[in-house]
Design brief:
The protein has four helices and no strands. With 121 residues, it is mainly alpha-helical.
Length: 121
């Protein structure tokens, strides 16, 4: 091991007579643009009032496509639209679910009261 180090020391630096050139590599920092595709898929499958979940899914796919091409501004625009549509789909879906549960509860309460008031033979 010591012999190898000694050999490197003897060889020294390269003795080229040409000018020293350097290469600069610019590495772009990857801007993270969330495309909300999982949220859009969830809304498409479970909360899809007025097809808002499906439209949000389409915008999420467009955002992912723009991101793959390198168009960060376009990706952010489509992602923002997808996020807005996802919020509306989720809120309207929860409201519709709550109203549906309330209507079913009232229906069964009214039917139960009418059944109690009916004369038995």
């Amino acid at each position: 091991m010591i012999r190898e180090e000694h050999e490197v020391a003897i060889m020294g630096a390269p003795q080229g007579s040409g000018p020293v050139t350097s290469t600069v590599v610019n590495i772009r920092s990857e801007t993270v643009v969330p495309d909300h595709i999982v949220w859009s898929l969830f809304n498409t499958l479970f909360f899809n009032p007025f097809c808002l979940g499906f439209v949000a899914f389409a915008y999420s796919v467009k955002s992912r496509d723009r991101k793959m091409v390198g168009d960060v501004i376009g990706a952010q625009s489509f992602a923002s639209t997808a996020k807005c549509l996802n919020i509306w789909a989720l809120v309207l879906g929860i409201i519709m679910l709550a109203v549906s549960i309330a209507v079913i509860a009232v229906f069964f309460t009214v039917v139960g009261q009418h059944l109690k008031q009916m004369p038995r033979p």
